[in-house]
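Q: A reviewer asked whether we had any structural model of the full assembly, not just the individual parts. We don't, so I'm hoping you can provide one. Inputs are below.
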Amino acid sequence: MNPRFYPLAATIAIFVAAYAVCYAQFPYMLSTRVAGNLLTDNAYLGIVAVGMTVVILSGGIDLSVGSVIAFSGVFVAVMLRDSGLHPLAVFALLLLITTAFGAAMGAIIHVLAMPAFIVTLAGMFLARGAAYMLTIDSVPIAHPFYDLMQDAYWLMPGKGRLTLIGVLMLLSVLGGALVAHRTRFGASVFALGGGEQTARLMGVRVGRTTVGIYAFSGFMAGLSGLVFSVYTGSGYPLATVGTELTAIAAVVIGGTLLTGGAGYVLGTLFGVLTMGLIQTYIVFDGSLSSWWTKIVIGLLLLLFILLQKGLLRLTSARLSGAGTGAGSAARAG
Amino acid sequence: MLLTIRGLSKGFPGTKALDGVDFDLAAGEVHALLGENGAGKSTLIKCLTGAYRRDGGEITLDGQPISPGSTSEAQDLGIGTVYQEVNLLPNLTVAQNLTFGREPRRFGMVDGRAQRAEARRMLEGYGLDIDVGRDLGTYSVAVRQIVAIARAVALSGKVLILDEPTASLDAAETAMLFDVVRGLRDRGLGIVFVSHFLDQVFDLTDRLTVLRNGRKVATEVTAELDRLRLIEHMLGHELEAAERAEHALTDPQATTRPELLRFAGFGRPGHVAPFDLTVHEGEVIGLAGLLGSGRTETAELMFGAHAAQSGTARDARGDVPLATPREAIAAGFGFAPEDRKTDGIVADLSVRENIALALQARRGWARPIPRAEQARLAEEYIRRLDIRTSDADKAVGDLSGGNQQKVVLARWLAMNPRFLILDEPTRGIDVGAHAEILRLIHEITEGGMAILVISSELDELIAVAGRVIVLRDRAHVAQLIGAEITTDRIVQAIAASHGTDAPEGEAA
Amino acid sequence: MMPRTLSRILPQALTLLAVVALVSAVFPGFLDVDLVNGRLVGPAVDVVKRGAPVALLAVGMTLVIATRGIDLSVGTVMAITGAVAAWTIGAGWGWGGAVALALAAGLAAGLWNGCLVAVIGIQPIVATLILMTAGRGIAQLITEGRILTFNDAAFAWFGSGSLLGVPVPAVLWLLTAILVAQLMRRTALGLLVEAVGINRRASALAGVNARVLLIAVYMASGLCAALAGIVATADIRGADANNAGLWLELDAILAVVIGGNSLMGGRFSVAASVLGALIIQTIDTGILLAGFPSEYNLVIKAALVLVILVLQSPNLGAHWHFLRSQMRRRAEPAPAASPQGPGAQPRTTPAEEARR
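A: Here is a predicted structure for the entire assembly that you could use as a starting point for your response.
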């Protein structure tokens, strides 16, 4: 197998192994009902994690997405309540806003050469604050179109429901995978993650790409917010606090290198599903407490980071085998 | 001529990196560009590839004056460059690297199959049989270099600049690379080959140009030149007359002084072969050799920057552990590294703090050097070494290169070490400061401190060292003592191919 | 030495004064202080008391950031130490045992982070993310998912008591800040921390024990987080593993950045960071007092951060310089300006690393 697939394979293997453990204890978990719920319950997380994957592949980070999801839900709820626009029009408007918001953060990061961490931290406050300013209450969404979307599902064999939002998540993963792995923009993202200096030498337009990356993440966060509003049927400014970190964890467990430059969007899907699976298992078990989710996810994080560190060390050991290659490279760079 | 450079000049604050350099490159020729570190090779290349803007001079390509403003502009003009390491992205596949920016697309998506086919087509004729779908990083440096060359040739196609392409290749890999380069030459490309491996220069190139201190020293037909003359060109031969007089300064009796340290079988694979070296009190030992010969590696090993894997170091009291810099410092060693910016100074700290840093680290955090004491220390060395700074609290990063070097020197002198290692202490320093540092070296050995000086400037070694160790191919190959130390002898020892006619010393 | 310290914290002090003046203008009674039952009370006293957790975290975070690191786990460590303290009291070991064990837990957390960063060599942001994620689960494991309440007046004193009329949390952060600042400046620690943050390689070659120093700095951060956890737990007389210290790490980082400390490491000022924490708390409280709905809080905070960050941006100077040189060049024959502007040539590597 091509070694570039090793981390992805590890992710999928862990998911399959985890599922096997679950199945051994609770045979019912291998049913389309559980699978369908896994997709539905984690739809918003999966979508936002796709955007996060692209950001992380470029060597950046986007802390604003959790707040953007909350803002999106509130924005849609308030607009539907107060404006009388059709939901689709509101959706378009929202995606425009969140994409522009991401693009603006990307522009600040590039033009002012500021750390993505701190810029998107400010973005996190801003988006959450904007949500508060719209409303501080949970605003229920009552619109026939929403009922339609919530009830849209395909009944799989075994009575499992493949819901609209679950499908939307799978489509997002597909779309994200195409963008990341099958476009010139995606190639530039990987190039940036591999090293900005070299990327520049190879002709990557760093500024344009950076803006594009955060715009994409903003778009995905907006879409995730829409899905979340369909899922919960309301908009609440306090929702999805900390989702950005869950998404980052999913991306890392999905086999993407947190330092950028290597990973797969598909892996992120499995990262999200693995995390969802742990939760489902704990629910099934009934006696285990919910905090084990966090501990196990933390352990998985550690495992993957150590794994990547080990892989990196292996490759760099082989590469610097011929003399002081690594040292001179560092100096030349 | 394919490429003509006339009177190229480029200056940086404090130094003149290139001073009226001429250079010609014909189509179908491999032209070596030679010189020690800081001679101006990389500045010349960067002016050619648009990474730097030249201050003066003309560059013409195919008779047209050119002035590339960026790497991609140079590429479009026909000038492609392959650097030693930082060319391509190891985290992308070979195919992605080769076709980057020009990926074949279908319905707006990159067509992976066509991309791999295109990549295989680009690699045709290079004698590589590799899976282009794998990450570039999984292949050896040699393969990566060839991939980089294939990309550069496909993108530019007139002039190919190879900057130290063989620095981390073994012999077989180098041969493979050379076959590729010869093939490209026969296709009519003009190739600039930068290397410090003289064997390779003689093996591969048609002509060569030597730079020293930003000036062109000579352009010669390689086949008509012998090794000795080439090394003389590179290392300089100017103070021949003054040499004897200078020599009086060094004590010919050095080796009869009390022994300070004895390294036996000290070495580390891949860095420097095991060597024996005895250091006496108050003596100045010079390390001579070309770039990459193992000079810096020897120093790093002695100072514990890399731990030695074989051998021992002993002094009068017994074994001296030297696995880390802290141990070396505890043993009374000091080390002023070659690359001041990354390894020497702590740029944002003040002159005073930089001077006090090593002393403070040895005393431990709980026993701070009182501020008044630091200030006194700083003032003393600012005066003694004539460090040009407005005051002791100025950030050391704002000082000129020579003054930064003096600050690093002051840091170690303040420790009063018994053995001080200076790696290229005069690199990038103006002539005045140059002489001062040499004078300082003499001065400080009078108190019994032993010094190891690494330098590319033979004149400098001749002027200060009582003993010179010559390195070649990461091994100590010769030792010259006292009156034996002449430019000719050093050059001969460097030039001798693999242990034949070298004047063998005890360190062989 | 004194004037240097003063001029370093002057911008933060002025900002704080401006914010206080602004709040006083809208809410005239802001600076009123009364003595009730031997305690000082008033809105400003409240700010000083409520700002304690962030101020404490900011002290440790300053040191971590000075070494070019970041500690995302401090909020979670607050939850862990709070849970440990509450559990210890529940087990009947008294307030002394609670404080001791909580501090030990904070140190252990810091040791873990420090080892991941300094020994294994994981980027700080990733290394501390692990504990940030898993730690809250550990805290919940200790409290078994409930809010562990206790009734120990001696321990509650750390949260709601007063010393000579001053709220104990305020005394605690003030003492910690002074202690740490003095420790850094009276010993050589400050210099060594800065040296490692600016150039770890050169510092190690000069004999600085960078590895031990890094671990120590993360342990200091863990210790500060433990103090903050004690204060937060004592204040509500209970350990809430879910909410204790939630997102306070971000406030702490913000306080450090507002304090003018660069995320790229190097020169630091504990005093300025603490002032940054006070600025944040004054804004928080001020917005409430001024009668604004609290929902404006975050937007104002975000705007403030952006302004401060833009002023600190390393590129701002370069852009300004570039504009000026362009103006000057106008007279000359138009040069082929490179499209990337000033960044086309040797680009500042800090900017690149900063993206990580």
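A: Points you may want to mention in the reply: The CA atoms of residues 28 and 290 of chain C lie 9 Å apart. Residues 94-120 of chain C form the longest helix (27 residues).
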